[in-house]
Design goal:
Elements (H helix, E strand, L loop, with lengths): L10 H15 L1 H26 L8 H8 L4 E9 L5 E8 L2 H10 L8 H15 L3 E7 L8 E7 L7 H7 L23 H5 L15 H13 L6 E4 L6 H11 L7 E5 L5 H9 L16 H4 L4 E5 L6 H13 L1 E2 L8 E2 L3 E6 L3 H6 L5 H7 L2 E4 L10 H16 L5 E2 L1 H9 L5 H15 L4 E2 L1 H4 L12 E2 L5 E2 L9 H15 L11 H19 L4 H7 L4 H10 L16
Parallel strand pairs: 5-10, 5-11, 6-7, 7-10, 12-13
Antiparallel strand pairs: 1-2, 2-4, 3-4, 8-9, 14-15
Helix pairs in contact: 1-2, 1-4, 2-5, 2-6, 15-17, 20-21, 21-22
């Protein structure tokens, strides 16, 4: 399912939801709702398969999806194709969950009730073929039949499809020559600017993500944006603190004013005061003219103080006075200058701990911490990784003149399981590197991670239970470690000077080899290929040992841990 989050819903709960909608909306409107939901779901699955699956007849994957999910079991009776490329088909649907839900609430009736399934099949086949198709139930279990009989035709082949077209919300009111698209009424978003994404350094850079952790941070951002309150943005390096600060500025009443950013860690301590407050001519050697500081340049707008935790105590005291009095003095000046700026500070350090240890002033902390916003690291918002991958891929394809289409399944899984110590910035760098290195039209794991970067070892084989194993092959032991291990074993064997009796070397070799083989199989969860790699053997060599019994240990029979 392309790593999409899936939700299991039992039929009884679905029946309750269905009954509530029927009671609230009425049968006609509820039917249209369920058909449209099914249509959109079918189209999404088809778009996924068209990108990921290469098969002679990918239309068959739709029924397999729903059979796997326990929704319906599809039996194809017949299928033909016309000259225009349309499909005409008969199907038998067994055990449709929608029938179970309907019958449990209303019993047997006179109308078919597999509305969502009809919509799903119509959306799936229409997207797959590029030709509008409509499905219709000729008979249904909800009508007392043993199975559901379903007929599929191109939309243009139906002479009485107006009702189905209306339920699916199609453009147009007749059955011929229409384009199958879900009806989408314009919806006014209460927060249109943030939902579209706001520019950072250009129109293509914006906040992306739908994960609950990110949405919580965005909700806090929206609440504080219209005010003049000071904001403290906390989060690890690379999570996008400056992007959030710029978004906050764009959503505020100061959006027409300047946004001035200061990296407190990048400015030498001796120059920080002049950078923030400005300098008068002749204040020190080299000050040949008056220069406005960042507070003055940000007048009427937002001043962003990044890495605020790196300020020294003297700078902290001067910044505190500027915030409390809303006025500053240039270095070498005597005149107070009124300020009109909104302060947004950011830090990747724990300022409360810094306050407790005396490294940061508590009064300055409380002045900045009026409205704190905690940004989640990327490992806590993995739902957003695919969205970010698509955005970065488009950006760097354009920047480097490449035409990379996407990522292999292995690369996608590696990116989804990686911990990202560098957060979004690291993901961005990984994608840019991969776009540059990729010679084909897809990105693989080798394009993403350099040696020693700790790429996750996943999805390299089947486990002993026939399921995909997410544990990769263990690296081969180093020669030095192996030699040390041999010395330890030999030292243990002769520690008591042969008190246990003479050593039978051949039996000892067999027992030791057998124990290593069984340990390797256990660690590889029965995957023979993986165990062979761990032992530095070929698969057929390990299988031979298992079959001939030369891998049995003392008092044990040889076991085959799995299919590998």
């Amino acid at each position: 399912m392309n790593d999409r989050r899936m939700m299991m819903l039992d039929v009884a709960s679905f029946a309750a939801l269905r009954a509530e909608l029927l009671r609230t909306l009425g049968p006609a409107v509820a039917r249209g709702v369920f058909m449209r939901i099914g249509f959109i779901s079918g189209r999404r699955d088809a778009e996924l398969l068209k990108e990921r699956i290469s098969a002679s007849d990918p239309i068959l994957f739709g029924p397999r999806f729903h059979g796997l999910a326990g929704i319906v079991q599809v039996e194809q009776v017949s299928v033909t194709r016309d000259a225009a490329g349309g499909h005409h088909a008969d199907y038998i649907w067994h055990h449709c969950a929608e029938d179970d839900a309907h019958i449990s609430s209303y019993g047997i009736g006179t109308e078919p009730s597999c509305w969502m399934e009809v919509g799903y099949a119509s959306g799936f086949v229409s997207c797959m073929t590029g030709i509008p198709h409509l499905f219709r139930e000729l008979s249904c279990r909800s009508m007392g039949r043993d199975v559901c009989h379903v007929l599929q035709k191109p939309a243009a082949a139906w002479t009485d499809a107006d009702e189905e077209l209306a339920c699916l919300g199609m453009i147009g009111g007749h059955s011929r020559g229409i384009e199958l698209q879900p009806r989408q009424a314009p919806v006014e978003s209460p927060e249109p600017a943030l939902d579209r994404g706001l520019p950072e350094y250009g129109p293509s850079v914006r906040i992306l993500g739908e994960s609950p952790a990110l949405r919580a941070s965005l909700h806090a951002l929206r609440r504080v944006a219209p005010t003049n309150a000071s904001v403290l943005i906390c989060g690890e390096s690379g999570v996008g603190k400056e992007l959030f600060a710029r978004t906050l500025h764009q959503l505020s009443r100061r959006a027409q004013g300047p946004f001035v950013a200061v990296n407190c860690a990048a400015i030498p301590e001796s120059l920080l005061e002049s950078e923030l407050f400005g300098v008068e001519r002749g204040a020190f050697t080299g000050a040949v003219q008056r220069r406005a500081g960042r507070f003055e340049r940000a007048r009427g707008g937002t001043l962003f103080l990044d890495e605020i935790g790196t300020l020294n105590p003297v700078s902290q005291a001067k910044l505190l006075r500027a915030l409390q009095e809303c006025e500053i003095e240039r270095v070498g000046g005597t005149q107070a200058i009124r300020t009109d700026v909104r302060i947004v500070a950011a830090t990747n350090a724990d300022l409360r701990s810094a306050v407790a240890s005396g490294q940061f002033r508590d009064d300055l902390f409380f002045r900045l911490n009026v409205f704190p916003i905690k940004l989640p690291p990327l490992r806590e918002r993995r739902d957003d990784i695919r969205l970010l991958l698509g955005e970065f891929l488009r950006r760097y394809n354009a920047a480097h003149g490449k035409a990379v289409r996407g990522f292999t399944v292995q690369a996608s899984q590696a990116l989804l399981h990686y911990d990202y110590p560098g957060n979004v910035r690291e993901l961005q760098n990984l994608v840019e590197r991969a776009v540059i290195l990729a010679e084909a039209d897809v990105i693989d794991v080798a394009h993403l991670f350099s040696p020693g970067e700790g790429a996750p070892m996943t999805f390299y084989g089947l486990g002993g239970d026939g399921k995909l194993s997410e544990e990769g092959a263990s690296p081969a032991p180093a020669v030095q470690s192996q030699a040390t291990l041999v010395q330890q074993i030999a030292g243990t064997v002769f520690a008591n000077n042969g008190a246990a009796g003479p050593l039978r070397l051949q039996e000892f070799e067999k027992d030791l080899a057998s124990e290593l083989i069984h340990k390797a199989l256990a660690q590889a969860r029965g995957n023979v290929s993986m165990a062979a790699r761990m032992l530095g053997m070929k698969r057929h060599q390990l299988e031979y040992r298992l079959k001939t019994g030369t891998a049995r240990g003392p008092g044990r029979r040889a076991r085959h841990g799995g299919p590998g």
